[in-house]
Amino acid sequence: MNLTRSTQHLVTDNFSLEDALPTRLPAYVNSVAYLFGVTTLSALGLLVVTGITMTLFGPEWYHGGQAPGSGIGRFVNSLHFWSVQLFFFALVAHFSSKFVMAAWRDGRWTTWMLGALALGVAILTALTGFLAQTNWDSQWIAVQAKDAMNAVGVGAFFNTMNTSQVLTLHVAALPLLLMVVVGAHLFFIRRDGPVKPIDRQLE
């Protein structure tokens, strides 16, 4: 099995050059309803950049008081936090607007389900992020979340009070999974194009 050849076939079978690098978009995408997706994607990009930066420099840099550059570290930490707020605002707005537009029409159910899966993974990623703060709030959330995880039967696999497990999930596993799901979501959007408004369905 040749991975390069398989990738070439995957791209050429699903994309034209105009699909991959469009020069013109339909007039209806000028609506605000089509803005939330790219806002979500931009916030995710900022989350990845700030998250990697914080991981490289360590918690003393972004939580500590007198460490060299800790002022910049706290700024990056704040940028990461507010990017999460923007990300979820835009994601919920994107999800809601596409629900109202019935975005699963025209055989786009795969795109819709990948978007719903991305929302679920994002929520779990955010939960582990709150737990990774290791402050009083995060300890309280960890205790309450532990009971919730036990109640739904996954407490044996995910212990919210295990800092090492939480950090591994938040820093490596869940962001990687989220980017894979979002990448697949974007693949289908580029292949099938933006969903038409309902009143343009018959045009």
| Helix percentage | over 70%
Q: Span between N and C termini?
A: 43 Å
Largest sheet: none
Number of domains: 2
Mean of pLDDT:
88
Strand content: under 5%
Total of helices: 8
Query: Globular, elongated, flat, extended or rod-shaped: what is the shape?
Result: globular
Structural class: mainly alpha
Q: Which regions contain 5 or more consecutive residues with pLDDT less than 50?
A: none
What is the β-strand count? 0
Radius of gyration: 20 Å
| Quaternary structure annotation | single chain
User: Could you state the order of secondary-structure elements as H and E?
Assistant: HHHHHHHH
Structure keywords:
8 helices; mainly alpha; globular; 203 residues
Give the helix/strand layout.
Elements: H1 3-14, H2 17-20, H3 36-57, H4 59-63, H5 70-100, H6 109-131, H7 136-151, H8 163-192
Helix pairs in contact: 3-5, 5-6, 6-8
